Amino acid sequence: MADTLEFNEIYQEVKGSMNDGRLRLSRQGVIFKNSKTGKVDNIQASELAEGVWRRVALGHGLKLLTKNGHVYKYDGFRESEFDKLSDFFKAHYCLELAEKDLCVKGWNWGTVRFGGQLLSFDIGEQPVFEIPLSNVSQCTTGKNEVTLEFHQNDDAEVSLMEVRFYVPPTQEDGVDPVEAFAQNVLSKADVIQATGDAICIFRELQCLTPRGRYDIRIYPTFLHLHGKTFDYKIPYTTVLRLFLLPHKDQRQMFFVISLDPPIKQGQTRYHFLILLFSKDEDISLTLNMNEEEVEKRFEGRLTKNMSGSLYEMVSRVMKALVNRKITVPGNFQGHSGAQCITCSYKASSGLLYPLERGFIYVHKPPVHIRFDEISFVNFARGTTTTRSFDFEIETKQGTQYTFSSIEREEYGKLFDFVNAKKLNIKNRGLKEGMKQSYDEYADSDEDQHDAYLERMKEEGKIREENANDSSDGSGEETDSSFNPGEEDDDVAEEFDSNASASSSSGDGDSDRDDKKPAKKAKIVKDRKPRKKQPESKKGKDPNAPKRPMSAYMLWLNASREKIKSDHPGISITDLSKKAGELWKAMSKEKKEEWDRKAEDARRDYEKAMKEYSVGSKADSHRGERSKKKKKKQEKQVKGKGDKKGATSKSSSSKSPAKGMSDSFKSKEFVSSDESSSAESKKEDSEEEGAASPPPSSEDSASGSD
């Protein structure tokens, strides 16, 4: 049996909402990682008390109860996976996975049972529904009635806010069933009551979200923010992460508390609590506990009397009470030496911090993106100016974040950071070009040279030339250039009756007649490389024999399945390592056997290559012959076209009346044209015969035609 079981697309029920993630069962315990928040729930195998398999709305579910009363629910299993899970629980956890179906009779009376942190409403032996008591925010009693109020869940479309239980009176004296019911609920409910003295108080701290100045009262189980208008009570169980981030000016510090679920102010939700401190502020702090209690509870992490910078004291106290690590920026350093990048997100300017495992943006609105939820990043050119660029991040859920107006000097540092973290980069080719321009002009004065502006100018020139609207005064003569002097010549050649007046040379007519064929020839020359480019790219021939494998690879292919069966569940990397160890420990005689097999494979390969090379040479000879024939035929066709052009030249020099009208041709003009073309054909054929080897019978026949 495998040591681990993994399930994707499993849903954990938390406070009425279903959070998707991945579930992994191993010998050590059960691990669930939330895809949305990245939070990991780890249940040790020794803590498991009971496992229940039951049918739920999303297929089948697994309910786990621990010895300290906690309940974990996971849905999204298939019915066929029950046997596999049941065997795994028996083998590794020594637990029977019990099957219990929910009651669907629809009755509204039954029995309430309290088990750990769970209230179960049962009819007979079957449960109808269960309520985690940690979701209860308030419990009130009336005559024969108990009312439970719940925390609002922002992730769920519909939240259950209140449930009322009718408790019938009993005949027993001295026991009030309503009060007994309420006490059972309140003992496990998440009811925040600011009773007793605070451990310590921080006065008038500047808070960016929610905005204002607040007194922070530190209690053993929750944090109390007291402001002039609003009060917030934040249980430590809702704190997800802590961040301590230096401001770009090096004189202030951000302390960020990530919350799930968030705190609420009307319809506004605050997922992050951001405090701003000055590095110059100091404080002397005395905890409202005796030294023995401090030592017993915090185990040396805090002392009764402490002094230092205000931000250090707040972060130290929060770390000890919340029992979570504080995340600080990693090795990243921007162009100015700061550990952050100035940019804009949506309508506000802020700071983007590249961390070791994600990005965080402060402060309005705060954004935290983990590397494991990033699908790809993209570097885009700034929309308003070429002196900045945009950094885009798209998550696997399809959410896109665009951080704009980043100075181009930060590009190289940010690109190197993203590349080192092995994040997918969407436009890698474009970014390498951008990186090259950055490296080349990073130290130059921006007013003297702008790499992006130069590139835009070059692209503009190319577009103008393609559209025949180029106005640059270059010395080269191109077909798409516009020159007023030459335009007059073209117009005179085609439409003007007095064409000789525009000529600057002695043979004006012949010069003008030469212009059009010359342009056509140039166009053909420009297009030829485009046709030949794909022909020059030679890929690997699929018919060629495959190279022989080495002795080790032959042995590995033969032994791979055996290694897998001996080590079930082994990964590809571990399999390669194990194979290397086995090969190294193999005796010389066994290795010689595989060496002989490799030698035989090499001989077969050489023999096949000889046969392949002979066949490929014959094919290449046939291909060359066909190419030569095509070239000769093209030459002859081109020669005919040149001869026709030559006849028009000779006819224009012999007939003086051509300059008067091109539309009218006399019979004498036609006959002279035909005779001159016949003469030019003979001359051309004589020249070709002297320059080229004697043609084949087929070529001579086509030439005579």
From TrEMBL:
Pfam families: HMG_box, PH1_SSRP1-like, POB3_N, Rttp106-like_middle, SSrecog, SSRP1_C. Keywords: Chromosome, DNA damage, DNA repair, DNA replication, DNA-binding, Nucleus, Transcription, Transcription regulation. Residues 459-551, 609-705 are annotated as: Disordered. It is found in: Nucleus, Nucleolus; Nucleus; Chromosome. One of its GO terms (biological process) is DNA repair. Residues 545-613 form the HMG box domain. Residues 545-613 bind DNA. Residues 532-544, 634-645 have a biased composition (Basic and acidic residues). Residues 517-531, 624-633 have a biased composition (Basic residues). It comes from the Eukaryota. The keyword tRNA processing does not apply. Its main location: nucleus. Residues 497-507, 647-663 have a biased composition (Low complexity). GO terms for molecular function: DNA binding; histone binding; nucleosome binding. GO terms for cellular component: FACT complex; nucleolus. Residues 474-496 have a biased composition (Acidic residues). Component of the FACT complex, a general chromatin factor that acts to reorganize nucleosomes. The FACT complex is involved in multiple processes that require DNA as a template such as mRNA elongation, DNA replication and DNA repair. During transcription elongation the FACT complex acts as a histone chaperone that both destabilizes and restores nucleosomal structure. Belongs to the SSRP1 family. PANTHER family: FACT COMPLEX SUBUNIT SSRP1. This is FACT complex subunit SSRP1.
